[in-house]
């Protein structure tokens, strides 16, 4: 009788262990934005209240950007979470979303995404209807495909007047026209480090908007403010400055 009882307890323990190992959860990705630590929402838009590393005073009137190939990695296993999302701060769209993929509980060595589209996704023949409707396209004379980011606003220029700027990131292009060429890829992978997935996990991802203007290139809006899309040098500078824009915000108790 004792042997039977012991066997039942063992089977029960194994069953519980099996249940624990098979737990899966849906997670949430939440995107927030700041200027060197000061939070930014669309309520801060349309007012000149920011100062970049070049001491240009500026406003933000629109901020939206594309991320793609969102995934988790662990022990050579890759879990694809979402193909792409257009994060639109101006309209509070997709600032938080939950991929439909259920994820096994545990520690993952890396969470990552691509800023923009890689060349294969960018050159998709049929395009993406939601991005087309959002007018996120790049003209065919500049290679077609889609923007990676649109950051627009005004700044106080050297004549102490308000002037518009359009900090638009796309695939770097030369020779605009019927046969454009591409000197360098300007999409990039954002790696945010390891994460622990459990019940009700939210990954809080931050963008420091000020970084777009300062590291490693201190950005002078008097010199580089508009017509940046056909300027491959400016696009490569944006690519360089974007490397430290995103971070994973630590969980708070």
TrEMBL record:
Regions crossing the membrane: none
Tell me the classification of the organism that encodes this protein.
Bacteria, Pseudomonadati, Bacteroidota, Flavobacteriia, Flavobacteriales
Please provide the record's keywords in A-Z order: Signal
**What is this protein's name?**
Copper-binding protein MbnP-like domain-containing protein
Record has Hydrolase as a keyword: no
The region annotated as signal peptide is 1-20
Domain of life where this protein originates: Bacteria
Using the record for this protein, list the coiled-coil segments as residue ranges, or answer none.
none
What the entry lists under InterPro entries is as follows: MbnP-like_dom
What PROSITE patterns does the record tag this protein with? PROKAR_LIPOPROTEIN
Tell me what organism the protein belongs to.
Answer: Seonamhaeicola sediminis
The chain positions of domain Copper-binding protein MbnP-like read 26-218
The record ties this protein, via Pfam families, to:
MbnP
